[in-house]
Amino acid sequence: MEQEKKLTEQESLSLITMMINKAKESYHDTGIGAIMWGAVIAICSLVRLSEVQFEYKLPFDIYLLTLVAIIPQIFISIKEKKERKVISYDDAYLDYIWLGFGITIFLLIHISNNIFGEWGSWANEYKNITGKSPSFRFSEYVGPLFLMLYGLPTFITGAACKFKPMLWGGIFCWVCCIIAVYTSIKIDLLLTAASAVFAWLVPGVIMEKEYREYKKEQAQLNV
Amino acid sequence: MFKDLDPILHSQLRLAVMSLLISVKEAEFTFLKEKTNATAGNLSVQIQKLKEVGYIDVIKQFKDNYPQTICKITAPGIRAFEEYVKNLQAYLAQPK
User: Is B5 a domain residue?
Assistant: First the structure.
């Protein structure tokens, strides 16, 4: 591009439009984080489902895997930030949205555990007095709460990045959330695993493929 | 009466750089070079001109022991760009 070429008004406007579009196309997520979280949540849900179905208990809570997954996520984020040649306004906002999502999830876990503690002792007392288990089970409603939250950042990211697989993934989480309100805990866990696969794992694989193609194109351009 | 178009912006490469920077929070020199297909020397000169008039900020730092140049548009740069587009639209809207 020559620096001193004088432009007509029409050429100027076309150049501005072209460059703004080029800048918009520059968002390239590696997809690794989405793949990892999709796999982790799906595995946790399916293992918990097998615990409920086959009536056994692992010596540890399988959902602790989500805490372990934070460590590779930190390294992934640092590496992605280092490789980024451009920071869009969307990137900056989305980083905060996902950070906020992570904090909200852990707060919800904390609140749920407290309710479970209270509810457990109340249910035992109820059983001792009436001889029957209470018909209301709080655990049936935990799955939908998480699914509702999973949908929010996924939908926003899909819309902001104009990445339809994630946009539909977010909607899928909310549809599963509605269904899970009326289904048993086993189905809730299955819906959670399906949501993790469709909201994160599959879009992550698509993103990773697109990123590899982009890197290949860049390498060819630089030859 | 139409206002004159800002001569700093009414140049192909400088306008391309400003159009890229108006769309993002910040960008590396290599990103601007890749998107504009300009040579490094040519791009450096134009970035320097934009910096001198206060339209962009240029941050020079090191990343993994390699020099890194980051550019971001300033508030006066945004105002100048918006004014330029407004004037451009006014020119284009006038009856031929």
Answer: no
